[in-house]
């Protein structure tokens, strides 16, 4: 691994920022000062220090984020704030990415990681990883709708959906609105919104509560995040089985 990449991945900023660190600070590899970011190091066996502090390399990182409205599920964008912009400087890494996407106006659980294999296991159509959403619906959701979801809907573009499990939480007949929970095991574009469109209703607000058995921490406010615990990571990794 390049030295500048290792330093960046240890939480010392972008490659550009690390370049300045190498120029100005005392970076040593196995006791010898190195200023060249291209210098090759073994992240496991080499001893790398910055001003005398040993850099502990960690390969994979996992964060649970409570995504707010108005933020896009991307790593960079010239016009909009991204989910990576919500990270502190200490936690930011240029190899992190969101596992899947939530629409700009959708809130809730989003996993940020640099573990490509875990992301693949959670998103692969063959795995059928479950995702639970809470939603406010314009219209009265009925038991007929519940049955249609369970059968599997054909949505716009003639796309067929696997069965979804819809629960009616409450109905406000005066406002003609319904609160529901729905569990799906796919990740088609705008899937939940299109499923309700297929039964003549409109999603007003959408919030992802869980994914792959990982439940959004109720103590996380919108826009905040924390590291995934070892127990939670184990739950996510079971999805590859």
TrEMBL record:
PANTHER family: PSEUDOURIDINE SYNTHASE, PSEUDOURIDINE SYNTHASE FAMILY PROTEIN-RELATED
Record protein name field: Pseudouridine synthase
Keywords: Isomerase, RNA-binding
EC number: 5.4.99.-
Protein family: Belongs to the pseudouridine synthase RsuA family.
GO terms for MF: RNA binding; rRNA pseudouridine synthase activity
Major enzyme class: isomerase
Positions of the RNA-binding S4 domain: 1-59
Taxonomic lineage: Bacteria, Bacillati, Bacillota, Bacilli, Lactobacillales
SMART domains documented for this protein: S4
